[in-house]
Amino acid sequence: MDTRSAISTLLLACMVAAPGAATAGSKARAPTASSKSTAAAHVNSSDESRVKRGYEIAPVPLNLNGRNPALVGLGSYIVNAQAGCNDCHTWPTYAANGDPYRGQPKMVNVEHYMAGGRPFGPFRSRNITPDPASTMTEEERYQEFVSVMHTGLDPDFAHPAFGPLLQVMPWSVYQDMTDRDLRAIFEYLQAIPHAEPYCEGAHLSEAVCQP
To answer: pTM of the entire structure?
Structure first.
């Protein structure tokens, strides 16, 4: 079977697939009917090239256990080739000698991929890798993710002096994404490994490294 046929077969299978068990650290719960339909909604042949490219450019190993593979691939494409999530949520963004802005071959900082910590004045970007200590269900995590993307409301209320809305993340742009694209991003972020943020210098307290 050639690559195009294999991708087509994968996509066809994923049109009727749904996410399975929750990730490690969460309460196991079978997906609801609504989450099943949302997760598998309209992944069609027009997404073939984006799904394939998403897997090609994913910088870290992906855990597809219980995930919708086509949505994971599509999510990788959106996160890594369109939304620029790595620029804010990975710090430093690139590995040593891998900064394309210095004319070097691009190498993403996989050790701290999506672990947050990038400084923005009084803010630091959040760790958006899977939390092994989370007690939230899959559906609860997804609903919180959608709420953040749609409204910008900070579930941690980490900076009360600035109000309840996130001040750096461009949620006002992302809120116009389709439900399918948001689900794909969520599926991808749940499939990447947990990582810890980078802290600049041993003299800095651990608190400095938190968002």
So the answer is: 0.75
